[in-house]
Write a structure and sequence with these properties.
- A hairpin with a 5-residue loop joins strand 1 and strand 2.
- The protein is of the alpha+beta class.
- The protein has helices at residues 24-32, 39-43, 58-68, and strands at residues 3-10, 16-21, 45-54, 75-76.
- 32% of the residues lie in helices and 34% in strands.
- A 4-stranded antiparallel β-sheet has the order 3-1-2-4.
- 9% of the residues are buried.
- It has one domain.
């Protein structure tokens, strides 16, 4: 099973969000339609600007990098 690492951006103030999923189309649909409460819905971050396929083991690496760089919980502003 592959995972996708992706970056979303807002139109208004260039807020960025980094996330990871095993179903990119479904997840981007969730962001664009505000299905899930949270950061991306609050700040209108719903434009897919980049993605890459990765192996499941990389999920832990991404979480580690995010927390060490102060990004935390998948958001990147």
């Amino acid at each position: 099973m592959s995972f996708f690492v992706y970056i979303l951006a807002s139109k208004r103030n260039a807020t960025l969000y980094i996330g990871m999923t095993d179903d990119l189309l479904k997840r981007v649909w969730h962001h664009r339609n505000g299905v899930i409460e949270g950061f991306t819905k609050k700040y209108g971050v719903n434009n897919l600007v980049w993605f890459e396929t990765t192996k499941p083991a990389s999920r832990h690496f991404c979480a580690s990098v995010s927390s060490k760089n102060g990004i935390g919980r998948g958001k990147w502003r």
